[in-house]
Every structure is written in C-alpha cells, then in structure tokens.
Amino acid sequence: MAQLIGVARLGRDAVLRYTHDGTPVADLSLAFIYGRKDPNTGKRPTQWVKGSLWGQRAESLTSYLIKGSRLNVTLDDVHIQTFSKQDGTQGVALEGRVLTIEFVDSPNQQQQPQQQSAPPPQQPQRNYQAPSMSGMSDMDDDIPFNAYFARNAYCI
C-alpha cells in the first residue's frame, strides 16, 4: 500500500460524521506544499489530499483540527478517487486514511490569534552585594598552560 508522510496544513475545519454502524470518521482537507516557487506568482505548488481519521481519535481530535493548523501526518492506502464535478466533468482527488497525526504548532498558536498583552510585572530591583570573602585572597582561576606546555611539548 502507498503511504504519504509529511507536514500539511488543514484547508478547513475537520468535519465529524458517523458511518451507518456508528463509527466516527473525521474528514480532513490537507494541503501539502512542495517543489520550487513559480517565478511568475512566487508561490509553491500545493497538493490537496483528502484524509480520513477513524474511531475515537476522530471524536476526540475534531475540535482541535481547525483550519490553518499544521500537522505532521502519515496517510496509508493513498489512492486516486474519481468523482463528478458540478459542471459535469470528471475530477480526481488524492485520498488516504490517517494513521498518525501530530500537531506541529502548539495549541495556543492554533486556536488563538496573537494578542498583545501587557508585559509581565517586573520584580523590584534589590541592591544586593555578594558578601566579601574576607581572609581569601583573590585567586587567579586560569591554569598556566603556557608554562607547562613550553617545558613538556610533545608531538603526537
């Protein structure tokens, strides 16, 4: 079976439906961007793939699968499906079953637009000085490598 693995962006919110026997299925519209930018438009080509997420994962994740979310997905059983368009012509769509799904963006980045908030309150500055080390001389922490290597220089 063919598999497709990559990072995609959701083109629309996930749609939850149920089969006749009650199995939950979430339909995903995944946009995979690939290739080089078109010199005329400055955009990279996009491959749209219909993904289906089955079972309890579909029910529990649907509310988080919102338009614009970036996902790392693995699709299995990827195949070309033909369908009739509204104008009567025949169209093709790439479809697959979602095996693994991982959110690339954090939930805060996905669901909430960037809000400008007040800077966090700063703690008052304290005039604190480290206690002096009375009785200890100011030691030089550097090891005198030059003196050692000048006397014991070896080539390996």
Provide a short characterization of the protein structure.
The protein is mainly β. The chain has helices at 56-61, 107-111, 145-151; strands at residues 3-10, 15-18, 24-33, 46-54, 70-84, 90-103. Strand 2 and strand 3 form a beta hairpin.
SSE topology:
Elements: E1 3-10, E2 15-18, E3 24-33, E4 46-54, H1 56-61, E5 70-84, E6 90-103, H2 107-111, H3 145-151
Parallel strand pairs: 4-6
Antiparallel strand pairs: 1-3, 1-5, 2-3, 3-4, 5-6
What does this structure look like?
With 156 residues, this protein is mainly β. The chain has a domain at 3-108: OB fold (Dihydrolipoamide Acetyltransferase, E2P), CATH 2.40.50. The protein is built from 3 helices and 6 strands. The protein is globular, with a radius of gyration of 30 Å. Residues 112-119 have low confidence and may be disordered.
